[in-house]
Amino acid sequence: MTEPATPETHYDEGSQISKRSRLLLLKSLSSVDLQDSPPLPLSIQILLSTRRFRSVSRGVSRSAQTGPESTSLLPRFAATHTDMMLRGLAGRVGSLLLRRSAAAPAGARMSSHPQDVVTATDMSKPVYSDALDVPLPDRPYNMDLTPAQMSLKQKEKGPWGQLSKEEKVALYRLKFNQTYAEMKRPSSEWKTVIGCAFFFFGLTGLVVWWQSVFVYPARPKTFDKEWQAKQLKRMLDMRIGPVEGFSAKWDYEKGQWK
Questions:
Q1: Cα–Cα distance between 193 and 201 in angstroms, integer?
Q2: At what angle do helices 165-175 and 147-156 cross, to 10 degrees?
Q3: Residues 239, 243, 249, 251: is their CA dihedral positive or negative?
Q4: 53 burial class (0-12, 13-18, 19+ CB within 10 angstroms)?
Q5: pLDDT given at position 218
Q6: Residue 94 confidence (pLDDT)
Q7: Buried b (16+ CB within 10 A) or exposed e, 147-177
Q8: Which parts of the chain sit beneath pLDDT 50?
Q9: What confidence score (pLDDT) does residue 123 get?
Q10: Burial of 60 by CB count in 10 Å (0-12 exposed, 13-18 middle, 19+ buried)?
Q11: N or C end of the chain: smaller count of CB under 10 Å?
Q12: pLDDT tens readout for residues 114-125
């Protein structure tokens, strides 16, 4: 009677079988023609050495214990599992890129597409605007002064009687963009609005005419004047509504309406 195998012996046999199955798997992978294909990236090589690949190799080792017939399935199994790992890696890389693009700051995204950048006004700072109900804006219209304009601003601090009319107008334009007369001046925009409205009215009329000619069917005969006259005579002959209705308003003796 043989003695049962000790746990150490069982572990050694399993490790030998696992090593043998890994060698068979690597041999099947090496049998594929990879001369014309580019080398695998480093990330895929690292993925091949992870716990997932080890668990697959243990599954192959169990199938290798059944006999030499199962070794013919190793190339197909290796190719299928490699394709699955590549797809999983591509999905992980895609999700990582999406996360990084979503987490990227707005400045980085705008710098990558300078032609699509729309600068927003910082409303926390004073903003200039021309409005009839705001006589004094938050800041002057012109903030970047030239040396001549700076000297004019210094002259403004003195007596205004020494300023000429042109200098007073220049000082006003430094402070404001438009005068009240310019803001109240009517524009010719109403002509554009009315012209566009009539254009679309005409276009709609052309569409309705085209539909009435080429799309809609012919008018029914009940719209004809002759048909309506015959229908009226029939209703009078049938004395419809003789008390307070239709026929009560017709004089049958004189043959006319009452």
A1: 12
A2: 110
A3: positive
A4: middle
A5: 87
A6: 66
A7: eeeeebeeeeeeeeeebeeeeeeebeebebb
A8: 1-18, 25, 28-38, 51, 53, 56, 60, 64, 66-71, 73-74, 106-112
A9: 76
A10: buried
A11: N
A12: 555 667 777 788
DSSP string, the chain: -PPPPPHHHHHHHHHHHHHHHHHHHHHHHHTS--SSSPPPPHHHHHHHTSHHHHHHHHHHHHHHTT-GGGGGGHHHHHHHHHHHHHHHHHHHHHHHHHHHHHHS-HHHHHHH-GGG--PPP-TTS-----BTTBSS-SS-S--S--HHHHHHHHHHTS-GGGS-HHHHHHHHHHH-SS-HHHHHS--SHHHHHHHHHHHHHHHHHHHHHHHHHHTS-PPPGGGSHHHHHHHHHHHHHTT-STTTSSGGGEETTTTEE-
Q: Which two tokens stand for residue 109?
A: 């995204």
Cα 21 to chain centroid distance, Å, stands at 51
Token pair for 86: 């590549």
In this prediction the pTM is 0.35
Query: Which residue do the tokens 């927003």 mark?
Result: 120
What pLDDT was estimated at residue 206? 97
Residue type at 56 in one-letter notation: V
Instruction: Give the dihedral sign, CA 247/248/254/258.
Output: negative
Alpha carbon distances (Å) from 102 to 118, 179, 213: 19, 47, 55
Spacing of C-alpha 64 from chain mean position: 53
In this prediction, residue 151 carries a pLDDT of: 93
Q: What residues have CB less than 8 Å from 155, skipping those under 6 apart?
A: 162, 163, 167
User: CA torsion 9→10→14→15, rounded to 10°?
Assistant: -30
